[in-house]
Amino acid sequence: MLSLTTIVVGEASGRLRSESGINLYLQEAALAASVEMPPLEIAQVVEGQMALEIAEKMPMRYPQVYVYCERLSNSLKEKFRTFSGTARLVIEARASHDRANSVEPHLQAVVDSVTSVLDAVRGEWRVGMFYAGGYEVAYSPVKGGGRHYVKAAKISFDVEISLN
User: Fold this and answer.
1) What H or E segment, with its residue span, contains residue 143?
2) 8 A C-beta contact, residue 137 and residue 115
3) Which of 28, 38, 39, 91 is at 20 to 30 A from 74, Cα to Cα?
4) Residue 112 DSSP symbol
5) pLDDT for position 2
């Protein structure tokens, strides 16, 4: 059986990659931020966590979106369940540009798209998995990365899980 973190991360990334996912909202968000952005390819939505220093050494295309489980908490809220608790998921968006002041609007378009997807997918994801709709966004400062500047944002949210 797949691990619980693999399942919940797969559910989240599947929603981002779907037809009603991130690309549905990206063009509207890019227009609002006054930037041009092509639709994201499937390879730009990555399941897993990767440090910027390592990611920069690999061939990639920005923006990048990483989906991973930061914390899994089995609080046994429901007695006689194998798992009854919370998975803390993070969707980390990274944008890059050759000018430091141009990174922010590109990143904001991706963050707006991700949060629009999260707003649209509230409710039951699968039997025993429920997303209530709240999230938190934390931004990092602009850093030098590779030949360009990079900025990241972490969108954190909880998924309630109740499984036997």
Assistant:
1) strand 143-145
2) yes
3) 91
4) H
5) 62
Give the per-residue pLDDT at 54: 76
Q: Where are the domains of the chain?
A: 4-163
For the chain, give the mean pLDDT.
Answer: 91
For residues 83 and 116, give the distance between their C-alpha atoms in angstroms, rounded to a whole number: 29
Query: How confident is the model at residue 53, as a pLDDT?
Result: 72
Contact (CB, 8 A) for 32 and 106: no
For 4-163, the fitting CATH number among 3.60.21, 3.30.465, 3.20.14, 3.30.70 is 3.30.70
The total of other beta-carbon atoms located within 10 Å of residue 20's CB is: 11
Per residue in 69-125, pLDDT tens? 999 999 988 888 889 999 999 999 999 988 888 899 999 999 999 999 999 999 999
**Rounded to an integer, what is the distance from CA 102 to the centroid of its chain?**
21
Measured between alpha carbons, how far is 92 from 9 in angstroms, rounded to an integer? 13
Give phi and psi for 123, each to the nearest 5: 115, -160
* Half-sphere exposure of residue 78: CA atoms within 13 angstroms, side-chain side: 12
Say what the pLDDT of residue 60 is: 78
d(CA 91, CA 12): 9
- Can you tell me the distance from the alpha carbon of 111 to that of 88, in angstroms, rounded to the nearest whole number? 18
